[in-house]
């Protein structure tokens, strides 16, 4: 099969999660796609592109880079469809591939940035009382995330921002749950200390 052009379908979604009902028949759709049904593959893109795009955006910090990464993720899915088990949920495979693609992109860019508007301080136990404070805290978290190692950042983004369970994060990153818990705990402490240090410097 020839490579496909995903660009027309790839747009940054406004919703954080896919429609819960959209994956009801994903197994059957995946089976049809594996059998060569192009329309079924397009359905898979529509069903899962929101999570792939938002995860890539949070890891790379750029809409354009996220679109490129998402396109690469679905191209890899297209190329390796016959290796995917239709009896298993597809999203864990896509999360893992998204992290891998973003890892490659990050290594090329040599920088770490996350969009401030996509970070919710509440997920990291920060509770700003005013809009100005909330904006400042978001900027602090963005700066704090830059200080994390790549693995710590991926773990905390997937767990605290994307909302995966520890087990899902471990599966996605190819690590043990113990390692992921340690990475998340370390990342949270680093973020807290970084934010506290900035706040003390302003007093």
CA gyration radius, whole angstroms: 18 Å
Question: Mind telling me which CATH architecture of the largest domain this is?
Answer: Orthogonal Bundle
Number of helices: 8
Q: Write down the secondary-structure element order.
A: HHHHHHHH
Indicate the CATH class of the largest domain.
Mainly Alpha
Mean pLDDT: 77
Percent helix, as a range, is: 55-70%
Summarize the helices and strands and which ones pair or pack:
Elements: H1 26-34, H2 38-60, H3 63-79, H4 91-109, H5 131-146, H6 150-161, H7 166-173, H8 177-202
Please provide a written account of the structure:
The protein has 203 residues and is mostly helical. It has 2 domains: 24-109, RNA polymerase sigma factor, region 2, helix turn helix motif (Rna Polymerase Sigma Factor, Chain: A), CATH 1.10.1740; 116-202, Arc Repressor Mutant, subunit A (Orthogonal Bundle). It is 64% helix and 0% strand. It has 8 helices and no strands. The protein has helices spanning 26-34, 38-60, 63-79, 91-109, 131-146, 150-161, 166-173, 177-202. Helix 1 (26-34) crosses helix 2 (38-60), helix 5 (131-146) crosses helix 8 and helix 6 (150-161) packs antiparallel against helix 7 (166-173). The longest helix has 26 residues, at 177-202. The protein is elongated, with a radius of gyration of 18 Å. The model is unreliable at 1-24 and 111-128 (pLDDT under 50).
Concise synopsis of the structure shown:
The chain is mainly alpha-helical and 203 residues long.
């Amino acid at each position: 099969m020839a490579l496909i052009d995903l660009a027309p379908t790839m747009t940054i979604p406004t919703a954080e999660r896919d429609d819960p009902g959209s994956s009801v028949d994903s197994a059957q759709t995946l089976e049809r796609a594996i059998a060569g049904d192009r329309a079924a593959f397009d359905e898979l893109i529509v069903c899962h592109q929101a999570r792939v795009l938002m995860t890539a955006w949070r890891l790379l910090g750029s809409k354009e880079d996220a679109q490129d990464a998402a396109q690469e993720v679905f191209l890899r899915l297209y190329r390796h469809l016959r290796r995917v088990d239709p009896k298993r949920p597809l999203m864990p495979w896509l999360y893992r591939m998204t992290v891998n693609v973003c890892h490659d992109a990050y290594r090329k860019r040599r920088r770490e940035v996350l969009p401030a508007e996509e970070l919710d301080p509440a997920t990291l136990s920060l509770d700003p009382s005013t809009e100005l404070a909330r904006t400042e805290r978001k900027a602090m978290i963005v700066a704090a995330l830059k200080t994390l190692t790549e693995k710590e950042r991926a773990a905390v983004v997937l767990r605290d921002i994307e909302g995966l369970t520890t087990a899902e994060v471990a599966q996605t990153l190819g690590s043990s749950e113990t390692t992921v818990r340690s990475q998340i705990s370390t990342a949270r402490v680093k973020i807290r200390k970084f934010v506290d240090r900035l706040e003390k410097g302003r007093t």
